[in-house]
Amino acid sequence: MSRRMKIGAATILCLTVLWYVATTLLGLIAPGRFPSPAATLTALNQVSIAGYAGGTLIEHVLNSLKLVAMGFIVAIVTGVPLGLLMGWSRRAEALINPVFLIIRPIPPLAWIPLAILWLGLGDSAKVMVIWFAAFVPSVINAYAGVRTIERPVLEAAAMLGTPGPRFVREVLVPAASPMIFTGLRLSLQASWTTLVAAELVGAFYGLGRVLNVAQQDLYPGMILVGMIAVAILGWATTKLLAMAEARALGWNQAAALAGRG
Fold this sequence. Notes:
Largest sheet: none
Strand content: under 5%
Low-confidence stretches: 254-261
Oligomer: single chain
Mean pLDDT: 86
């Protein structure tokens, strides 16, 4: 294990010990306000084997992963090209930016009533809300990535007469990709944050439904299980995105190391 991983593991261990001492040994926190480790493990065992809120833990996790993946992918497909277009073309920016500035401050959760009205209580409405949450960061960072491209790079491409599709594929996207991936990380985080709120309304499966039902049942242990599951899934998907970024931007890291040498 690396030094960083050892420090992280030690921190989690210390927090777990403090949690046990405060809730079980000393009883400083009432069980109705925050569960003990034993109560949390009992809730985890229940939702994993017998099920809770209409499904087992794996069913809830798979449904939440599906919704996040769908909303996130749609946001990438729509948001990144739009940001690149606005960053490269002044005309496109003048045409699209006023509308984008109007919808940008609207919280993603404010779209839930319209999403339900348009698409019903199914998964489509939840994907729409997640899409909007992930769409805004992807547009902003793709736009910023184009605007940070050094002018000599653009002038060299123009001097060589690089055709449009090749310019986008070999110049525009690679040069803006560090900022694009920054936007994707923010989009993924926003997707998970919005998912839980979207699943609070009209969901039959999902971690948001687990949290909603546990709140109605006054079941702190199950609430904590749902929160921990969201945290682990968010960490795991972010780790996968970081691996994809490292693979896609290997040329950038190699250039940085060469420059330092």
